[in-house]
């Protein structure tokens, strides 16, 4: 039952690399917060600061009302699942999971019987019962990942910190295990921070997502808010496979604008725009409707991707990608197109 609160948290390496840049963030009790961003944006550093594995340059970290900023890692009661899992190769599954408890045995006055009981309990939770005596090399990748998770959970942490925990697995297992991680974190009501660069994974696992770039949090919100109300150009283009079109505002009324990108597009904007402003217009491929509309485009290429067809269009001189459930037309043919949704951002 812990609320994690970061206040103006900052980490500068070697006096010049600003890895985490004045981050404010609240993760509510029992909430799963994904930290989503590209490589090098500071996600791991943020996680390590919360774990106490890295000391902040400035700013503060609270667990509920306790200021833990200067507390050593072993006194924080956080557990980290690293990308590499870091299992002990010579130990059995049981001993790998028991390891953290044995370190705490004295302090928490744990008996051998209690250790056994708690390890069994957590192995059952991650569905590894029966594999106690195996060593990591005798397990599949997915099973090793579960051991890493069990090892983190066995100490009953207040805060669970996962750093790209599924990055070493193939696509199918990643989908299975992200659901597992969510199920378990929710069952235990444990406050969780989940670092990933994969948008779909972030959306699937988390209650809310913090999108990060260049050390800064760009937006915090539910997956729907992030997807449907991107706060800025970075967020709009990082989630989804967007078209980016350059244009100039022709009309503006509140947040609704008409932008000339070679043809007129109705867009919404978080900025106060006025006619004549140069903007970048972001259009999701699924918001390019084929088979009606005032725009005339030529089909250049159609690619079948399983769940949908991706169509490359040329509309006047402007290239546009569309995605939909049916192939619209053959290459070379003309189709009527409507852009049903778009966002306009200042460059
Ligand atoms: P990735 O997804 O590639 O792991 P990330 O978003 O987790 O990236 P960080 O590992 O937090 O990013 O790194 C953020 C920035 O801080 C990078 O520019 C990185 O090179 C730098 N950095 C990280 N750790 C150190 C360190 N110990 N010393 C110096 N610079 C560091």
Automatic annotation (TrEMBL):
Record field: catalytic activity: tungstate(in) + ATP + H2O = tungstate(out) + ADP + phosphate + H(+)
SMART domains: AAA
Main subcellular localisation: membrane
Enzyme Commission number(s) from the entry: 7.3.2.6
Gene Ontology process terms (BP): transmembrane transport
Gene3D superfamilies: 2.40.50.100, P-loop containing nucleotide triphosphate hydrolases (3.40.50.300)
Record's keyword terms, sorted: ATP-binding, Molybdenum, Nucleotide-binding, Transport
Gene Ontology molecular function terms on file: ABC-type tungstate transporter activity; ATP binding; ATP hydrolysis activity; transmembrane transporter activity
A GO CC term attached to the entry: ATP-binding cassette (ABC) transporter complex
Keyword Lipoprotein in record: no
Domain ABC transporter stretches: 4-239
Cell compartments where the protein resides: Cell membrane
Subunit-level organization: The complex is composed of two ATP-binding proteins (WtpC), two transmembrane proteins (WtpB) and a solute-binding protein (WtpA).
Function: Part of the ABC transporter complex WtpABC involved in molybdate/tungstate import. Responsible for energy coupling to the transport system.
Family the UniProt entry places it in: Belongs to the ABC transporter superfamily. Sulfate/tungstate importer (TC 3.A.1.6) family.
Name recorded for this polypeptide: Molybdate/tungstate import ATP-binding protein WtpC
Record lineage: Archaea, Thermoproteota, Thermoprotei, Thermoproteales, Thermoproteaceae
């Amino acid at each position: 039952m812990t609320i994690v609160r970061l206040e103006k948290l900052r980490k500068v390496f070697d006096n010049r690399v600003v890895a985490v840049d004045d981050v404010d963030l609240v993760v509510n009790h029992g909430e799963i917060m994904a930290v989503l961003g590209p490589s090098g944006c500071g996600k791991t550093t943020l996680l390590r600061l919360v774990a106490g594995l890295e000391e902040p340059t400035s700013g503060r970290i609270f667990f509920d009302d306790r200021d833990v900023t200067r507390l050593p890692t072993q006194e924080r009661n956080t557990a980290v699942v690293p990308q590499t899992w870091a299992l002990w190769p010579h130990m059995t599954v049981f001993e790998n999971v028991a390891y953290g408890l044995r370190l705490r045995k004295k302090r928490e006055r744990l008996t051998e019987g209690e250790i056994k009981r708690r390890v069994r309990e957590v192995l059952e939770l991650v569905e590894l019962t029966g594999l106690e005596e195996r060593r990591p090399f005798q397990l599949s990748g997915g099973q090793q990942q579960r051991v890493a998770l069990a090892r983190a959970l066995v100490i009953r942490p207040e805060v669970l910190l996962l750093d790209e925990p599924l990055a070493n697995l193939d696509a199918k297992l990643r989908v299975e295990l992200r659901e597992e991680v969510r199920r378990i974190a929710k069952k235990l009501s444990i406050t969780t921070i989940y670092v990933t660069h994969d948008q779909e994974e972030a959306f699937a696992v988390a209650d809310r997502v913090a999108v990060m770039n260049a050390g800064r949090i760009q937006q915090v919100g539910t997956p729907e808010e992030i997807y449907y109300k991107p706060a800025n150009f970075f967020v709009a283009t990082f989630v989804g496979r967007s078209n980016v079109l350059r244009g100039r505002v022709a009309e503006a009324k509140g947040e609704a604008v008409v932008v000339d990108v070679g043809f007129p597009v109705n867009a919404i904007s978080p900025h106060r725009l006025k006619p004549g402003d140069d903007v970048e217009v972001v259009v999701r491929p699924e918001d390019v409707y084929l088979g009606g509309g005032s725009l005339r485009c030529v089909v250049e290429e159609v690619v079948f991707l399983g769940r949908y067809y991706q169509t490359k269009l040329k509309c006047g001189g402007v290239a546009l990608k569309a995605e939909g459930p049916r192939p619209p037309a053959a290459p070379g043919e003309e189709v009527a197109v409507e852009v049903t949704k778009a966002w306009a951002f200042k460059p």
